[in-house]
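tool_call: predict_structure(chain=1)
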Amino acid sequence: MKNKRSLLWVLSMVLILSVVLAACSGGNKGSNSSGSPSGSPSSSPSAEPSASAPPSESAPDENREPVTLKFISWKDTYNPLYELFHQKYPWITIEQIPVNGQPIMEIIATLEAAGTPADVTEIDQDLVAFDQNGLVEDLTPYIDKDPILQSVSLPQGFYDTMSLNGKKLAVPMVDVPMWILVNKDLLAKNGLEMPPNDWTYDDFRDIAKKLTNVDAGEYGLTTQAEFQMRLLSTKAIADGHAANLQYMNEDLTQSVMHTPDVINDVKWLQEFVTKDGSLQNNAAATAQGDVTREFINGKTGFAIGGDWVLPKLKENAKFEWDVLPFPRGKVSQPGYTIYGPLALLAGSKHKEEAFLWLSFQFTKEAQMWKIDQGANASVIDPELTAYYEQTPMWKGKNIAAVQIAKENAVIQPGVTIPGWGEYNWNNILNDVIFGEGDINEIIPLTEAWNKKTLELRAALK
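tool_result:
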């Protein structure tokens, strides 16, 4: 009852807001922004749709009525994947509902109120909140009976970051890997060779200093928050200072960001700015016209990149670039990956068809398509492993680094951690590294969040 009341409250607020906005704006429409692709398949309109039942034996394609699945997503580059899905299930079409900067819960409520509910969504905040509001289905019964997911080999703990209280609330839409982007021309200019894949964090810092030439406006690192967002917490794992990304402990119940070892890791990256001069802070980058904020400008040696940067680099970079895995620390060489959660909405009228879109992500054709875009394969399969050598995406590049990054990847946590949206690690560290933030503030802020997340976790039991 609590979940239903929460959803009704969201719906009523959206309806009231829409009336007010209509009166104030005279019918002006909201701005457009890009959406990230995930697909939500819809089912044939029958008198009694199979709303909650797990997928059963499919009827012959010729007996199917056309279904359009509404899929709430950010990306606008997945049309070829939608077409691959349509070829496999000809009666189902994916209609992407762009996010346009709105909270996804609002989009869900608006579509529900209009009588045109969405079927599948990507998740933009804690999955806990979606579950508490009764917005997402437990995928366990679907997964247990799905022939595709039951036939593939998945990494150990594959569902862990998207499960809560015994329920599988989402599957990864895409496994987004991270690498160190390398400007090979800048290396050559400074008499340096491409580092080996087992390079260390000491190598990383030393090379960054050697690439820095202030008079030429060249710096070792690109001025991007990704270095503290991705590299810094990966280094903490590599040196044995944290068990998980974002400085989380082994069971993801507490942050260790306030411990002396992690504070020293923060000081280590801060010294790239304050001591080495190989990384510009925000003020210095702005003063020089923001040239060092973009790796593609060719003025920086290293950057953090994922699949989203590859198309632009391949098309527009005027220099030779490549990739390296994240460096090796004192105890290990972890990488960094993001699982984009893909959930089946409880309000869908086409749940069986919608789940087909989820399970389709793990077919060989979908996995290969994602490798072609620079993403990781989620499925463990020799043919997919070999495909990294064949895809045009990595032709002429350091394919071994791409494979190492996949094999060593640690998954970004968060979506099922209570109060994750209030864990302010990102803003704190951005201020410390790139601004004038006080490093001493890390301790009390971390202690306060640790107390809050335990309270929230206890309330969920």
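agent: The chain is about 40% helix and 15% strand. Proceeding to next step.
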